[in-house]
Amino acid sequence: ERATMGNKPPKLPEYASYEALLKELKAANIPNDTQVIVAIDAKGEAAPNERKAGSVPDKLEESNTLDGALECCGRVLGTDPAFVYLFGSREAEGKVVPTRPVRGPTELLARWHSIAANHHASEEPLSIKAVLEQAIKHNDQTRQFHLVLIFTSHGIEAPKEEEMAALKLAARYPLSIVIVKTGSSPDKGLENLALGKGRFFDNVTLVDFKDVAAKDTKTREDYMALQCMKKVPTQYAILKKKQGYMPPAEVPVFEDPAWEDERRYQESLQTEAKLLVFGRNAKTGPVRLGRGAFWDPLTKQLYYTDILGKLVHIYNEEGKTDTVINACGTVGFAVPDENGKLYVGTNAGIELVDGLDVTKVDTKKNSGDYWISPYADIEKGKKAKTINCGTVDAKGRIWVTTGETSVQLREPTGGIFCCHGEQMVFTPLEAGLTHIGGIAFSIDGKTLYAADLSLNSIWAYEHDVSTGVLSKPRVLFEATTQVKGVVSDVCLDTEGKLWVPHLGGGAVVRYNPEDGKAIKIMRVPSLLCDSVAFGGENLEKLYIVTGSETVSMDREYYAGSLFVIDSVGVRGAPIRPFKPKVNDNNAGGSQNPAEGGAAADEAEGKEQGEESTLSEPLENKHSLDSGGDKDEIGS
To answer: What's the pTM?
Structure first.
């Protein structure tokens, strides 16, 4: 039943134009999400002289080049990302070299220019075996119909048996293989490959770009597409009839590091970061903009949020589960208290997750099964600005940063709030400090560090531990130029050093706060490192939350995932849970929050042998309870 083809392939229908081919492709019901794989022969081919992308010379001798062929394949590539590989060079060593996917011929040509000069001639004969094996690997996982474009400027003098065997094997898959020959490369070997002898169906199309280059510049792209895809309707019909091929209802994601830039991928192989929650496979998808990583030693759980996704994540280290809660609004942090309740910072203020006990999280519940109720109104009835992040100080008070999410700001927006019970202390941002990401306190609690995304620097405030008042803001240091991107969060180790993720740099950097020098750089296989926190049994692990909002998921394969580095050589500084103010002695009537806070803090200070200085806790000229002009305070 599976009769093999003879030496002569069946006669194919003739298409008068590219438009006629398009009609036939549509009539064949070929899926719109057909994937394209591009393999470029880099065997000694140096990048051609730079010229304006998209321009094709009129002269045939200048057009019949690998560069010219790549410029003419726009209609074949389509609008979806195309996988790109290099093969045939000395550096490839008989394999394919992955690069990041591209969209359209302009990106493909620029990509080719940037990497071809780093590849050198190989003494081994050119072989497409590795390309076919990679195409089969794609199809094994996705079972989609693939168009495989192989560009060669050297040709194949005599196909090896292993190549013919690879072609026979590829004929068992929904693959259409197109070999585009440029320049004066040998024809005989390519023709033998294209004959189709001994294969289940004719899965190879040979295109001599010399014929395409001879066409007028206005019609070259159409003619190139016509030549490359003229066999596709017939090939697809054979696949459906003889192999019973049906495209999958749900297309799986092709899991391959080739989605990333080859340099980034090589660096990620050397990273110590381990994948905990894979964004692509998560129920709610990859994290868009991660914030507020917070480790709770009591429950051994990591809390982090997705501001734009409006989600709270609870990662349980023992069970390896990631529970998601819908916060019904932008959410910048999530911190537990000592009684198992969870508090989140949303655009409505600080809120409490009802029906949740973090000591025994029900992993079977859906993200929308919880209710969010108000706890503290940050802006006193106004719609609060976005809460970017939050932390807890040594006295158990929640500290919150608010502002806009854009890093292009030039004027201060929002500020820093301290919450103790229902009372708030507001510290407006100083001139120059425009967009705070994460914040963290020094070990002694006397300094508050803040990551400023707009100026790519770390700021410091002096902090009065007893009253919760901030003063003397200053730029502590600017981020290192060794790592790209901007600082987005900060946490501390037991030596007082700062660990800062670089958003867009794919790394977490350990800084010395005294001189701002980078001590250590830890690479992460995702560019958008959003938030970090120490955790684990002895706070020896470093958790890293990555985002996906400003990158193409086609290029950043691990974007929006959660990573961990098991050991960075130092332990993290502990952060205590939130300690809400509860007035047990005044159940029958109301009490001024300031007085309640003073009594509790004073008692706590006496128990620890501290000298009480809490006569007026949490009150300064910016306090929202001070009776000042609220509009002016919120400006």
So the answer is: 0.55
